[in-house]
Amino acid sequence: MQEPLIQQACDWLEGQQQAMVGCLAALVNIDSNSYDKAGNDEVADLITQWLEQDGITVIRHQRPDSGDILEAQLGEAGQGHALLMGHRDTVFPTGTVAGRGYSQKENLGFGPGVADMKSGLVMNCFVLRALSRLPNCPLPVRALFTADEEIGSPDGRPFIEAAAEGARAVLNVEPGRVSGNVVTGRKGGAGFLINVTGKAAHSGVSHADGASAIETLARKIIKLHALTDYEAGITTNVGTVTGGVSRNTVAPSASAQLDVRFVTTAQRDQLYLAIEAIIAEPDIPGTLATIEQTSEFFPLEERMSSALFALYQSQAKAIGFAVDGEFTGGCSDAGWTASLGVPTLCGLGPVGAKMHTDEEYCLLDTLVPRTQALTATLLNLQHISADPR
Fold it and tell me: Cα-flanking dihedrals φ and ψ of residue 291, to 5°?
């Protein structure tokens, strides 16, 4: 019943390579740093224009401080829909495009965010456009285009969780791995700011009267780093340290930024308790430490992607390319939906590499086949249980 639909969609996509590259160039040539609302909204304007030209419903959620949230819909919203996800923001500062816009050399596309993840945005647009051309689509499809994933989705997370409610599956088009694989598991992670207060004193005249915030912080860093467990996949890293007044003053203050990564939500809970206990310990009399969480991503546990990956892998094989699943230490919005119990697969976008650098690139010949594989997967989602738990 659905094979003719898949064939029809894939046949249309087969002729869209040039159009997809043109759309990719247009998006890359718009600065859209996470804190650049105007740039992110300009990207949203283009996506809205492309989708509405094909009669696809686009809802725009106005946001006062972040880029607006776009939500595209095909079919009636409700239980059992599929959710496509992608973020419009990049890590590159506003002004980057002026000196380094989109460029192309044979099969490689270059430019800020070309892989992470403007090629994925193009892919989602063309998936929706392909589905909109079918005489009937076997399930409702929603697509969310958010604007702050690179800074932890503080504004986008509630929209992601709301859009995932009742979903049969979530497919996130973060860039495909350089190996060509998709992502079946991701670590969760969080950022923390640690502040320590102490008591200043002259380090030569009245050293004993002081209470060193730096010493307290140093002792805590040693304990925090000792929580790293490579075998379990847990890492802790204090990446920045500041504090003190001068070389000959007992430090009255100090601060540090802590990054943690974990594989499961159970590990997360245990790790957070251990961190809180370390911060609460009175290392040096007269000092006080506090901790504030500044960001967080939940993990994509591999059990949440296994059935969905098997389906995608079979569709990719039918399209003509082999793909495997891969675990990565990086975080993404896929963790939010997986933590809700929704089958979730990530890294479905076109293949790219060297993300977040000036050498970032996208393999242009992966645009069409990976869009075809994703479209075929959507048209076969009746084979996926709505709750893998």
Answer: -135, 140
Instruction: Kindly calculate the radius of gyration of the chain based on its CA atoms and give it in whole angstroms.
Output: 23
CA–CA distance, 183 with 175 (Å, rounded to integer): 9
State the DSSP H helix or E strand holding residue 222, giving kind and residue range, or none if neither.
helix 213-225
Q: What percent of the chain has pLDDT over 70?
A: 97
In angstroms, rounded to a whole number, what is the distance separating the alpha carbons of residues 174 and 161?
A: 18
Q: What is the DSSP string of 59-72?
A: EEE--SSSPPEEEE
* Distance between start and end Cα atoms, the chain: 29
Bridge partner list, 171: 84, 345
Query: What DSSP letter does each residue of 329-378 carry, written as one string?
Result: S---THHHHHTTT--EEB--S-BEESTTSTT-EEEGGGHHHHHHHHHHHH
pLDDT tens, residue by residue, 235-280: 999 999 999 999 999 999 999 999 999 999 999 999 999 999 999 9
Q: Per-residue confidence at 155, pLDDT binned at 50, 70, 90?
A: very high
pTM: 0.90
What would you measure as the largest C-alpha separation in the chain, in angstroms?
87
